[in-house]
Amino acid sequence: MAKSIMIQGTASNAGKSLIAAGLCRIFAEDGYRVAPFKAQNMALNSFITEEGLEMGRAQVVQAEAAGRAPSVLMNPVLLKPTDDRGSQVIVMGEVWKNMSASQYYRHKREIVPYVKEAFEKLSEQNDIIVIEGAGSPAEINLKENDIVNMYMARLAEAPVLLAGDIDRGGVFASLAGTLLLLDSDEKKYLKGFIINKFRGDPELLKPGLRMLEEMTQRPVAGVIPFLDVDIDDEDSLSERFGRRAGIPLVDIAVIRLPRISNFTDMGAFDAVEGVSVRYPGQARELGNPDLIVIPGTKNTMGDLMWMRESGMEAAVKKLSAAGTPVFGICGGYQMLGESLEDPYGVEHGGAMRGMGLLPGKTVFEKEKRRTRVKGRFESPGGIFKCLSGMEIEGYEIHMGATDRKGEPLVTIWEEEGKETADGMSGENVWGSYVHGIFDGEGIAAALARELMKAKGMDPGQIKEINVKEYRESQYSRLAGGIRKAMDMDLVYSIIEKGI
User: Fold this and answer.
1) Which residue of 34, 342, 402, 471 sits 20 to 30 Å from the alpha carbon of 445, by its own alpha carbon?
2) Distances in Å between the alpha carbon of 147 and those of 111, 112, 124, 134, 154?
3) pLDDT tens-digit series, residues 343-378
4) Exactly one of 24, 348, 386, 435 is catalytic; which is it?
5) What is the pLDDT, as a whole number, of residue 236?
């Protein structure tokens, strides 16, 4: 059975996910068979495994860092918020129910056996499990139904390192206060602290570190600097949304929908030098981009309403009419059509008109489509013509089916040699259900060069690197930064001693 180490945080966005990913990489580099685990994740950024099962993207990143294939055993429970009060509950990769927060808490214990079974199976297959908590273990109003923080530490008999974000301020109070609010039997699991996102001279921090250690009788295992790494973030707290570049060669604007999901679809462009991907959340921020992308969403009709009420739809349509290329992925593709109908109330209920930029109608169904896909671009028009024949690989996660009337964008290769059409292609508007459609070798760079040509600029200025090699380099960079900043001898000693 595997030994475990757990990373908890003083709050959401304290950096738990990236620290866990870095440790996964370090342990793998040191020759251990390692896997990540998070009992319950809440995120709209999800992934489909080879078995057609859905899991949180953060654990996919951690699995990749560990050199492992993603498995729902690593994230047995995923909550995908549908509105401010409810979520779609996914258990072991499949939709369980749509529930309000209060309903979920009443039924939460029914999920515990799945969490136990997943962890036990994963533990049998590995040497070390890196467990990630959620939010804070000191949410005293939620402790009774906890299955992801100290409950998981008990179940796994996992020593805990508590991470605090010093960039927010108040890190010493957050770390010491969290320990203070733990129950007496919980405190024995907390073996040390991590101070994360530090900027400045470490010497100035030493007096505070000594005082924290004296007050709590627990060591500081590391002070991790603000690491400049480009790794997929977990959810809408992503710092990716706040990025501002200088003057780019290619400007891609991804609409920041209220319930945006799978925004990592644009990650391939991070590996193309000269391309800027930004996320405008207001119509006045849209500007005059070279390409507009309407991304996936957990509530297509609700976010289309927001587009309409905020003026974003009018701004996009105005630019589209003037010739600006527009691309929709999954929910964004559905919005671009003529109408949307939800007869079973799976998202919003009722019917509404679409943006009318593509000739198709979407009807939401009871069952979710979850599948990995491979295929190729057909003969799309406009700037996408440069992608003709290029191969794609990605996944689909959607409730609706679109009655396609226009020319298909891609052909999907099914089993036994069958082929099906996906998406639609127009002169300057396109759409597809395939997440990861830009990840294939050369696709992002080819599209960027075509956008350069459309501006009358030299496409040779666009430089591309291998996406897979780029991601691997970022995982290694993350691991190197954490290894340098943390006392890894102490970490291994904590893992070996256990509770």
Assistant:
1) 402
2) 9, 7, 21, 10, 10
3) 988 887 899 999 999 999 999 998 889 999 999 999
4) 435
5) 41
Strands 326-329 and 291-294, sheet pairing: parallel
Question: How far, in Å, CA of 491 to CA of 66, rounded?
Answer: 17
Q: Name the active-site residue from 24, 107, 330, 348.
A: 330
Q: Which residue reads 């907390």 in tokens?
A: 190
- The answer, yes or no, to whether residue 238 has pLDDT greater than 60, is no
Q: What is the mean pLDDT of the chain?
A: 92
CB 295 within 8 A of CB 267: no
**Residues 104, 108, 111, 117, CA torsion sign:** positive
The helix (H) or strand (E) run that includes residue 316 is helix 312-321
Q: Is 386 a catalytic residue?
A: no
Q: How confident is the model at residue 140 (pLDDT cuts 50, 70, 90)?
A: confident
Please give the average per-residue pLDDT across 432-457, as a whole number: 94
Q: What tokens were used for 229?
A: 């790494």
Told to judge if 330 belongs to the known catalytic residues of this protein, a careful annotator would answer yes
Beta bridge partners of 411: 376, 421
- CA nearest to 377, candidates 443, 296, 467, 290: 443
70 closest CA partner among 4, 31, 21, 23: 21
The beta strands (E) that lie in 25-107 are given as 34-37, 40-42, 46-48, 54-56, 77-81, 86-91, 94-100
Strands 128-132 and 463-464: unpaired
Q: What per-residue confidence (pLDDT) applies to 237?
A: 44
In this structure, the number of other CB atoms found within 10 A of the CB of residue 292 comes to: 24
Measured CA distances, 462 to 272, 453, 468 (Å) = 7, 11, 18
Q: Are 429 and 380 in contact (CB under 8 A)?
A: no
- Tell me the C-alpha distance between 202 and 445, whole Å: 40
